[in-house]
Write a structure and sequence with these properties.
The chain has about 230 residues and is an alpha+beta fold. It contains 4 helices and 12 strands. The chain folds into 2 domains: about 60 residues, SH3 Domains (SH3 type barrels); about 140 residues, Nuclear Transport Factor 2, Chain: A. β1 and β2 form a beta hairpin. The two termini are about 20 Å apart. About 5% of the residues have low confidence.
Length: about 230
């Protein structure tokens, strides 16, 4: 789904430049420059990065077409992928993967413990579905939205039982295949619903999750818990 794809920030205006972080979907950023089809975005704390202009213009504010043109930095020539943090400290892929894994398991643990405000700090995805389910809530009250999602709307806010697979996509994106556990410790399985047969919708026990590193160096889960109507 293109609309759900992460919006990557790169260290230059082109797909050949390295990803340094991912923009959060619920935040807007100021465009301060442009180069052909790329925008230079203010990331705060004296940091900036390049975003493909057609990625998702709803993430930005200000008149992007009125900003000055920028000179592109030299094209990357090395195969070595540099790492990036806002403090300019280096971070290996294994270190980033460990932080992403911890963010994922902690997010679900906090939800399971009904610590929704804390869990919201580890969520970097979209709240539109939860806002649509709960029109009476303040759309910016992310803790309350997660609480209703888990306790009323059908999200299965379970502990992680096992991480089946994990992949480093970039220094700012990590993919996981996850199994969850029921209250008794058994494997959670989502079966067919709403009159569908097991042939049409086979039972599922493994679910895909993405953890991103935002431009403040925080590791955040992009997807909500599994939904069961």
């Amino acid at each position: 789904n293109v609309e759900d794809a992460p919006v990557y920030v790169r260290n230059g205006p082109g797909f050949e430049f390295n990803v340094i972080c991912v923009l959060e979907s619920q935040k807007k950023h100021l465009v301060i420059g442009k180069h052909v089809d790329w925008w230079l975005v203010d990331l705060g704390d004296h940091q900036s990065g390049w975003v493909y202009a057609l990625a998702e213009d709803l993430l930005f504010f200000g008149n992007a077409n009125a900003v000055p043109d920028q000179v592109s930095p030299p094209k990357p020539t090395s195969e070595i992928i540099p790492t990036f943090t806002p403090t300019d400290q280096t971070e290996t892929a294994s270190e980033g993967l460990e932080k992403a894994r911890n963010a994922l398991t902690t997010f679900f643990e906090l939800l399971h413990q009904h610590k929704y405000e804390e869990a919201a700090e580890l969520y970097g995805g979209d709240y539109q579905v939860l806002q649509g389910w709960n029109p009476s809530l303040d759309p910016q009250d992310y803790g309350a939205l997660l609480a209703n999602g888990c306790e009323i709307n059908g999200l299965q806010c379970l502990r992680v039982k096992r991480i089946v697979d994990e992949k480093v996509i970039s220094v700012a994106e990590y993919h996981f295949t996850v199994e969850f556990m029921n209250q008794d410790g058994s494997l959670f399985v989502r079966g067919p619903c709403c009159g569908a047969s097991a042939t049409d919708h086979p039972p599922e026990s493994q679910f895909a999750y993405t953890v991103i590193k935002n431009c403040a160096g925080e590791f955040l889960v992009r997807e909500l818990p599994v939904y069961v109507p």
